[in-house]
């Protein structure tokens, strides 16, 4: 009887192992890529709102640079994309320029910009969101928040990058007006935050590389990079965003993000 039980347990173990192996094998690259993306989004929920002081550094292909001082405000919107407001303070030629972004998960983002020289608020059309934001190497579509629904995903492998273990995930924009055919993202396996993104143009050639540095932990949960740099692989230009100070849960309200008050944004 004891021998029969041992055989039964052995057979049961084999069956269980096969089930586990089949479940692992059954996860396709698309399923694993989506799983990583969902976890990445899940770990960054609940921050409510932020205010930050920043510097934008624009560099040409010869290394000459121009600096702009700016402030950003952002508010979390549950079950949709977030809202953000960017205000430029210096130098004089951009002072008072304000950019308002309403990110969405399943419909095109809403974006407006107030240009003091024109004294009017201009809406950014969906088909124009691949254009450069304020003459930088960031496109208007780069200024929106990461939403899972904006992409399809495919896990392509693992790699060590900056001495950290990473997932590599390809994400394909579903928006027909996106300037990119593909984005390749290096996601930290432990923290589920991106360290590098490669952007591929309509010809499927590498267009830009975005790198995230000096990650800092806030409220024991939220990782934010104090430096990001977008490098254009095709023209040699780059734009760096440096965060000097960031505050969370400041009490911002939905009414602080109103396109009708862009001209008075302070």
Summarize it:
The protein has helices at 2-25, 29-42, and strands at residues 49-59, 65-75, 83-90, 98-102, 110-115, 120-123, 151-161, 164-173, 182-188, 194-200, 206-218, 222-232, 238-248.
Structure characterization notes:
The protein is mostly beta strands. It has a single domain (40-264), classed as outer membrane lipoprotein receptor (LolB), chain A, CATH 2.50.20. The chain is built from 2 helices and 13 strands. The protein has helices at residues 2-25, 29-42, and strands at residues 49-59, 65-75, 83-90, 98-102, 110-115, 120-123, 151-161, 164-173, 182-188, 194-200, 206-218, 222-232, 238-248. The chain starts with a helix and ends in an 18-residue tail after the last strand.
Provide the fold topology.
Elements: H1 2-25, H2 29-42, E1 49-59, E2 65-75, E3 83-90, E4 98-102, E5 110-115, E6 120-123, E7 151-161, E8 164-173, E9 182-188, E10 194-200, E11 206-218, E12 222-232, E13 238-248
Antiparallel strand pairs: 1-2, 1-13, 2-3, 3-4, 4-5, 5-6, 7-8, 8-9, 9-10, 10-11, 11-12, 12-13
Q: What's the end-to-end separation, in Å?
A: 83 Å
Q: What's the total helix number?
A: 2
Q: What is the number of beta strands?
A: 13
Provide the CATH topology: outer membrane lipoprotein receptor (LolB), chain A
From the helix content, strand content and strand pairing, which structural class follows?
A: mainly beta
